[in-house]
Amino acid sequence: MKVTKAVIPAAGLGTRVLPATKSMPKEMLPIVDKPAIQYIVEEAVNSGITDILIITNRGKGLIEDHFDRAPELEAKLTGANKNEMFHQVVDISKLANIYFVRQKETKGLGHAVNCARSFVGNEPFAVLYGDDVIIGKDPACGQLIRAYEEFGMGVLGVKQVSEEAITKYSSLKVEKIRDNLFKCTDMIEKPSKDKIMSLYSILGRCVLTPDIFDILDNTAPGAGGEIQLTDAMCAMARTQGMIAVDYTGKRYDMGNKLGIIQAAVEVALEHSEIGKDFREYLKGMAAHL
Ligand code: UTP
User: Is the minimum distance from the CB of 106 to ligand 1 under 6 angstroms?
Assistant: First the structure.
């Protein structure tokens, strides 16, 4: 079955980026001139996704406004003959069929994904975490969808991380199939050092079958008292097996301050408008470090 639906959980409170995220959704933090969530929606669209459900929360109205039309702004840009900018603004509202649902209580990523049950119905679907921006020529979500089409089971987007970092993420038990593809049969969330299964961790993307919803209904709160998507995916990996794809592309963690600055610097260096000037500025700064 073709994967045409995606879910973007964006209802978290973003406490690691306070005070910036007190009233502003972290998913709207810009990387130079585009909010993080627009990169994510574009990745989904470039992967063949046509319908996207964004899980929001109170105070996340800015996300809805960003994907809506903006008549006053559009009129002003047309009047000023700023055609390129006009199209940039209007095209955002035409990227895909975008729907919104509120997660009424912030009970974790698994709970957020479970809010997508009626949108998803009986189809496989992609999940793109709202604070993980992945930039690369071949969209990461599309790489996972190809693996789903080949193997017909749930797919995890993974990367190798340091032993230090893995204790804050998940650790997967994997067996190589070929190249960057692995079979995953077990996993653990935030393992202590003696429980690490491998240095492969789920980072930012997965493709799931609708079986996940019944599993989530029976998943008890885990780490941090939240319903963890990893716990539900662990049950799926143990019973049905899952595929792990070590995707190509650079991932930026927009959920922490260092990740936000790294994304801004790297994207600015390649930016058509400011790249050259920023490079000179950065070289000047580096000379004094
Ligand atoms: P995080 O755990 O990084 O989000 O979840 P958070 O809770 O906003 O972060 P901190 O720890 O307080 O800084 C990863 C993704 O899942 C979403 C977040 O919006 C983020 O995109 N999420 C998390 C939800 O949609 N609902 C939740 O209850 C939790």
Answer: yes
Classify domain 5-286 by CATH architecture.
Alpha-Beta Complex (3.90)
**6 within 8 A of 53, measured Cβ to Cβ:** yes
Beta-carbon neighbour count of residue 18 at 10 Å?
11
Quote the pTM value. 0.96
Which CA distances in Å does 217 have to 233, 239, 241?
Answer: 13, 16, 19
Taking the CA atoms of residue 194, residue 222, residue 154 and residue 28 in that order, the dihedral angle to the nearest 10 degrees is -110
Average confidence (pLDDT) over 158-171? 94
- What is the C-alpha to C-alpha distance for residues 242 and 172, in angstroms, rounded to an integer? 11
In the chain, pLDDT over 70 holds for what percent of residues?
100
3-state secondary structure of 8: strand
Give CA–CA dist 125/55, Å, rounded: 14
CA pair distance 171, 180, nearest whole angstrom: 17
In order of 151, 173, 246, 278, the CA distances from 181 in angstroms are 11, 13, 7, 38
* Residues 190 and 167 sit within 8 Å (Cβ to Cβ): yes
Q: Give, in order, the Cα–Cα distances in Å from 138 to each of 3, 43, 178, 249.
A: 17, 9, 19, 7
Give yes or no for residue 23 having a pLDDT over 90: yes
Q: Is the CB of 103 under 6 A from ligand 1?
A: yes
Question: What's the CA-to-centroid distance between 191 and ligand 1, angstroms?
Answer: 19
Tens digit of each residue's pLDDT (9 = 90 or more) over 117-136: 999 999 999 999 999 999 99
Q: DSSP label at 26?
A: G
pLDDT tops 90 at residue 224: no
Residue whose pair of structure tokens reads 């996704």 in the numeric block? 49
The amino acid sitting at 217 is D
Residue 190 near ligand 1, beta carbon < 6 Å: no
